[in-house]
Write the structure tokens for this entry.
Amino acid sequence: MIEVDDAVGQRLDDEPIIWLATTRPDGRPHLVPVWFWRSDDTVLIFSKNDQKIRNIQRQPRVMVALNAADDGEDIALFEGQAELSPESSSAVMPAEYAAKYAALLHRLGLTADEMAAAYLQPIIIRLVRQISI
């Protein structure tokens, strides 16, 4: 388990987007912004069956990054190990996730249940190392 300092932990709790980097079969990176929920050293993401899922099935080592804050001086990068949960999104989605994204879901005209039905695959990422820049 890695230690996440309080300032970065607060950003992981509050920010709506984290960038997920996976590796395509030909070695090219695949970088996408995703909604997420953090609990200690674990990040939970919900996904459609798409490129990031195929990449994780082949290569579970990933990186995640928060958007830069403080004019680019507050960088937060992590190496992680991803796994695809065998459970459904609705089974593992914490109430706090739905609360975190309530306004964005409302703006999209979705409920948390509808979002879970569309983004069926939970991705669990264990943060294994914070990268300092």
In short: The mean pLDDT is 91. Strands lie at 18-23, 29-34, 37-39, 42-47, 61-66, 77-84, 121-131. Residues 6-87+120-131 form a domain with the Pnp Oxidase; Chain A fold (CATH 2.30.110.10).
